[in-house]
Write a structure and sequence with these properties.
- Helices cover about 55% and strands about 0% of the residues.
- The protein has about 140 residues and is mostly helical.
- Among the domains are: about 50 residues; about 45 residues.
- Helix 1 runs antiparallel to helix 2 and helix 5 crosses helix 6.
- The longest helix is centred in the first third of the chain and has 14 residues.
- The protein starts with 14 loop residues before the first helix and ends in a 14-residue tail after the last helix.
- The mean pLDDT is about 85.
């Protein structure tokens, strides 16, 4: 009978998560008590008990927030983001973002606020043409 070993890649812990894990492990080893751990992490003793239970049940990955890898429900698809950025680069280069957002809402029917379109363009490394400052003489 063939047996297959499936390796599951462990997610990397952030700096804060590593710190939390060190403190929770000290708590598990009885080097510190619950209130002291709560004080160090600036959380309540109840949250410390929950973190301790998660680490005991799930190991090191129990310290990771459960919502960390979930995509928010109100995000726009990457296709839409790429379409907005490429449309700006091809047809509306030099137009300020407010005018561009009005045009894109009319033409393509995107139901997004100006600030959302601004954020998408900024994430795609597109800068709004800035007004030139008047030099006072």
């Amino acid at each position: 009978m063939n047996s297959y070993i499936i390796k599951v890649k462990q997610p990397k812990l952030t700096k804060d998560e590593k710190r939390k894990l060190r403190i929770i492990k000290r708590l598990i080893n009885k080097e510190i008590n619950g209130p002291k751990a709560a004080n160090l992490l600036k959380v309540t003793p109840r949250q410390i008990r929950n973190l301790k239970r998660e680490v005991l049940l799930n190991g090191d990955k129990g310290i990771i927030h459960k919502n960390r890898f979930n995509k928010p429900s109100n995000t726009y698809d990457e296709d839409i983001r790429i379409d907005i950025a490429s449309t700006y680069r091809k047809e509306y280069k030099g137009t300020n973002f407010t005018e561009f957002s009005k045009k894109i809402q009319e033409e393509k029917g995107y139901n997004m606020s100006r600030s959302t379109i601004y954020n998408i363009l900024r994430q795609k490394r597109i800068r709004s043409p800035q007004r030139k400052k008047n030099i006072k003489k």
